[in-house]
Amino acid sequence: MVKQKTKIPKETLRRMGMYIPPQELEKKVHPVLWPLWWAEKRLERLLGLLQRLALLEILGIIGNVGILFAVVAYIGTEKQRRDAEVFNAWQTITGAYGQSGNGGRIQALEFLNASPANREGQYPGANWRRRSVCFWICTWPAASLEGIDLSVSLEEKGAYLRAVQLRRARLGEADLQNADLGGANFEGAELGDVNLAGANLSAANFEEAYLGDANLIGASLLSANLANINFVGANLQKANLSGTNLHGADLSKANLQGANLANATLTEADLQWADLSGADLEGADLSGVILDFADFDGTNLHKTDLQGIYLYISNSGYTYISADIEKAIFCETILPDGIDIDPNRDCQKIYRQAQP
């Protein structure tokens, strides 16, 4: 006797998760598409069978566990990857020693100065996006750049480092002679004893940076932001500081011989014991500047307003001028009370020098 197959009702198959098209839809299938329709129905049965297999569910769980393990492994090896990248960055910098141009040094410097978090006083740098990968787990500090050498000989063009981001960087005793750092950001950086002789620092941001005893002989700081900078004992001989913002800067004991400070903003700056001999202060804003014991030998004070300066010392009830300002060059100068000097004393000399 032949055993007949029991046909499962379509409603039962639908409840089991299988897609059973309406009967009227089957009748509407075009004869050309019938082979595809037939294959679709067979695949639906196979899919229903596979969905009921426990082995596939187990494999799915194993796959999810593998993904979790990969994420943990990636975060756990973050330090090793960071160390390898640091090594490559230093190789890029040292490999370009004495060479002009960029050579990847900008990216390398920014990477070394980068930190993923504000812990330990560090700030995110060029690779701040990496923090989104491991969030608070990645807490490496920014690398110290002290003593780094990016200088070139005087005969060659300086290393191209324009617009490099080195906020809060530590570059003490670094040699950046003749480097092109126009538009660079050194906000809050530590640059004590750094060599920036002949460097192009135009439009650079040095706000609240420390450059004590730094060498900036002949450096160009045109339109740079030097607000609240620390220049104590710095050598700025013949540096171009024309039009710079030096509000609140500490220039005490700084060497400014022959420096160009024309139209610079020096409001509330400290210039005690500073050497201003031969410096050009024409049109500079000196409101609230402390100039006690500064050297004014040959200083150009043409069209300079000195009424708001601090130039007097009180001792044993007597008030006296603490700097020999008479050695300066005066022409259309606005002098403070107590100084009996002709404000136009040297106009003829200035006009004679201005003639071709």
Key features of this structure:
two-stranded antiparallel ribbon, 2 strands, mainly alpha, 356 residues, elongated
Layout of strands and helices, then pairs:
Elements: H1 10-15, H2 23-27, H3 34-51, H4 54-76, H5 78-95, H6 105-112, H7 131-134, E1 312-315, E2 318-321, H8 347-354
Antiparallel strand pairs: 1-2
Helix pairs in contact: 5-6
What do these coordinates show?
With 356 residues, the protein is mostly helical. It has a domain of 42 residues. It is 25% helix and 2% strand. The protein contains eight helices and two strands, in the order αααααααββα. It has a two-stranded antiparallel ribbon with strand order 1-2. A hairpin with a 2-residue loop joins strand 1 and strand 2. The longest helix has 23 residues. It is elongated. The termini are far apart. The relative contact order is 0.05.
Q: Taking strands numbered 1, 2, ... along the chain, how are they ordered across the largest sheet?
A: 1-2
* Shape category: elongated
Determine the strand fraction and express it as a percent band. Answer: under 5%
How many distinct beta strands? 2
Q: What is the arithmetic mean of pLDDT? A: 81
Structure classification: mainly alpha
